[in-house]
Specification:
50% of the residues lie in helices and 20% in strands. A five-stranded parallel sheet has the order 4-3-2-1-5, with helices on both faces.
Amino acid sequence: MKTHLLNTVLIVTLLFGSFTLYGQEQSESKTNNYVVMTTKIPQLSPIILTAEALKKEDGPAFGRFIVIICGKNSGELTYKDKMYPFIRKAEKADVEIVACGFSLNKFKVDTTKLPKAIRTVENGILYNFQLQKQGYKSISL
């Protein structure tokens, strides 16, 4: 009888303890971070619109929103007339635009011509995976 009672108490304690831990994990991860990888500059428009909608939907839980530009079209990042409207919209929406250094090197893009608002990472694909490991929600277009 004592063993049965002890087992019941132990099971109840473990159950409630695990619920408490689960609840703590949920409350600590209130920030929603996003990363989008794309190869096409014109996709910045719908991506930024999405960021704006998520920012409104998430409210205070909205964290970072990063767009990584990779591939052969990354050279278009140096076209200031094309990029500045995107950059202004991105800044208003708290969207960070990041260029893949591997792509810039491969396609011989003059990085001195990149707008200052665009940060470069060594390898965009690796950076995307690193962000996913940190819990970022990710999509590639």
